[in-house]
Amino acid sequence: MQMPKPDSHVLSRKDLIVARLKEVLPEDAVISDEAETRAYECDALTAYKCPPLAAVLPSSTQEVSAVLKICHELGVPVVPRGSGTSLAGGALPTADCVLLGVARMNDVIETDYDNRFIRVQTGRTNLSVTGAVEEDGFFYAPDPSSQLACAIAGNIAMNSGGAHCLKYGVTTNNLMGVTIVQMDGTVMEIGGKHLDAGGYDLLGLICGSEGQLGVVTEATLRILPKPEGARPVLMGFDSNEVAGACVADIIKAGVLPVAIEFMDRPCIEATEAFAKAGYPMCEALLIIEVEGSAAEIDEQLGLILQIARRHNPVELREAKDADEAGRIWLGRKSAFGAMGQINDYMCLDGTIPVSELPYVLRRIGEMSKEYGLDVANVFHAGDGNMHPLILFDANKEGDLELCEAFGADILRLCVEVGGCLTGEHGVGIEKRDLMVDQFASADLEAQMAVKDVFDPAWLLNPAKVFPLAVSESRRSVALAAE
Amino acid sequence: MRPETEAELADMISAAKGPVCVQGGGTRGVNLNGDVIETGGLSGITLYEPGSLTLVAQAGTLLAEVEAALDAEGQRLAFEPMDHRGLMGKSGEPTLGGVVAGNVSGPRRVSVGACRDFMLGVRFVDGTGTVVKNGGRVMKNVTGYDLVKLLTGSWGTLGVLTEVSLKVLPKPESAACILIDGLSDADAVAAMAKALGSPFEVTGAAHIPVGLDGTPVTMLRIEGFAGSVDYRAGQVAALFAGQEVRVERNPDAVTKGWAWVRDVVPFHGADGDVWRVSCTPSDGADLAAKIGAEAHLFDWGGGLIWARVAAGTDVRSRLGAFDGHATLVRGTGQPKFQPEPAAVAALSKGLRAKYDPKGILNAGLMG
């Protein structure tokens, strides 16, 4: 993966930059020692590593503003970082950057049940947002699978989703307002405790902009009353087509489950070997969860099971109690861990129209044979967000490159059938160069024009999202101006 | 001008020397100087997959056509777009593009989200005549910046929409409306907060200080499968035990009642300016008192105030500083949209300069 050549002018002024940062931050919030900056050399896309010039850990919006002002003045690129769980390299540093971590900013600022929001500093982890309100019967809906570790800052940057977004939407649908610091240090409030934008929907634009438009330091998040209960049902089918048709029929019948998870045979086999959840060995397995009171759950599951039976399932398993519900979810929740036990793997994130599911799975199977690499599929079936896991051996010469090429082909396939490169992980560096497969140059120009407005010098997270060749003229003009 | 294709539209805009006024059905009260570009020629549903909850249509497609197609499959636009015709005194047929351009939503916004939350993709022609696409037709998509949100609610000032894709939802088989009589504005806002904060999935919460019989009525809506609606309507009614509570289960009455709120029917035909104030719900009652309107009502649990005032009333100065914004929906003499703080206004202006460098698209409408 190519990264831009570090700016030698910046590298040569490291001492000055660090000294200036120390003027506005406590001693322990500026990390410049080479051994210590290594802690920030990568995120969860561990194949790529590069220690930053320095890392800073501000504790307040004011400190973030002071840092950005200095970096802006000195022309230093800044890479923002939440918890570093990005699978797309969204927080990968460059050698000439100041890495700005928001981890120390994790307070709850305000909780308001009458107006159903919580305001937090964005270093707070996703799960601990729910943790702050669940005793009072509320929760924060977006639930990316890294929710124990991932920060709200990163969720906003990548517009994170999760297993339950069919009903509750993704981050952008649950974000009411932010405090954002622009690259020049200007602090702005966008949105708030009200429901809609008074002018352009800048909040919608900021969410999912991968830390390229500003650093979000505080967020007002919508919280929801916890449903009375939830219950999953598991069903197995002897073909992907039938499982796909069953999902479509359920949705057409007017049931809106909170989650519809899909696993294919390779995935079932791997998780079964690892987690022993007692899944049936079949071609396709669905886990469908519905919510409500006990009677409401019965009503919805009754309809779902009736539809499922029409598709001749090889297995239908209802959860009678919490323990059985836990067992139904166990395999799905262990899927990634199970894969990690078998091998190194790359997790993809393309989305496809649900109707294309059987075709896409068949094509992935064929490509798997061509590339000689195994692939297992877990899938948010209700919304078409695929997570093919390609297995490879990182110690084997050329295997990573082969795996990346296979992954790129799968993502191109997603685009070809009317889908997209990434459903919830973000573009980062990982899918940067594939953007030209999804977007025409005018489409990319329109997006880059937004960055021109928010960050004219292209200093924030500059080498992400857009292919380097496409963004080069902008980045080099900005460099020359400085 | 009435382009029949996206390419024709692009040519017209690229050739335009002066301001153009973008118009769908012309029902939402945007009347600006300049050559009118009607989008009605860009019409038709391009793709509708009920099993994927996805609809793609050209922007000039009549809303009625879209709603009929969805209805045939037992689905709907869940954000419940308002029909502005009665309020604005307009005739004509609303278009899907007009709904999206105005981010037009209704009472269900409080639970399921606004039009922008259901938008999956757009194609548009910017102010230079360049065709741009963003998003797509899938529900989860974080590929690149979300220009879909930017264009939704931009009222034609950043580009002319040519095609939009939306997430649609099943139409529930049943609905109920819980009615509480006689509450003051402040008590009603508190009651709505209580209901919306319950786990019973309230999909509408409105308060009408002067109802059909001249007394206040607070409305709470429950939707879903029949058994579930029975159960939840009972639970919500029980939250207000000891008060004057009724449960309306007649489907036509429920539909009509919420259309009445959605379209602000009580203001139809009455004189004066109409303002729409978006605020923190619990501030609703106080803010309404500050406005001192001739008539007002609350939607979104208090987070949306509709106010009818004497023509020319400066509602923004009456409100002072608050969390939210006020839009002049009907009336003249003041900016339609709330002026933004300087740093935000600079960004909005910067975006307009990029997308419409000639400054011709619905010029001046959004600052």
From TrEMBL, chain A:
Keywords: FAD, Flavoprotein, Oxidoreductase. Pfam families: FAD-oxidase_C (PF02913), FAD_binding_4 (PF01565). Its cofactor is FAD. SUPFAM superfamilies: FAD-binding/transporter-associated domain-like, FAD-linked oxidases, C-terminal domain. This is Glycolate oxidase. GO terms for molecular function: FAD binding; oxidoreductase activity. InterPro entries: FAD-bd_oxidored_4_C, FAD-bd_PCMH, FAD-bd_PCMH-like_sf, FAD-bd_PCMH_sub2, FAD-linked_Oxase-like_C, FAD-linked_OxidoTrans_Type4, Oxid_FAD_bind_N, Vanillyl_alc_oxidase_C-sub2. Residues 48-226 form the FAD-binding PCMH-type domain. It comes from Marivita hallyeonensis.
TrEMBL record, chain B:
One of its GO terms (molecular function) is catalytic activity. It comes from Marivita hallyeonensis. This is Glycolate oxidase FAD binding subunit. Keywords: FAD, Flavoprotein. InterPro entries: FAD-bd_PCMH, FAD-bd_PCMH-like_sf, FAD-bd_PCMH_sub2, FAD-linked_Oxase-like_C, Oxid_FAD_bind_N. The keyword Flavoprotein applies. Residues 1-171 form the FAD-binding PCMH-type domain. PANTHER family: D-LACTATE DEHYDROGENASE, GLYCOLATE OXIDASE SUBUNIT GLCE.
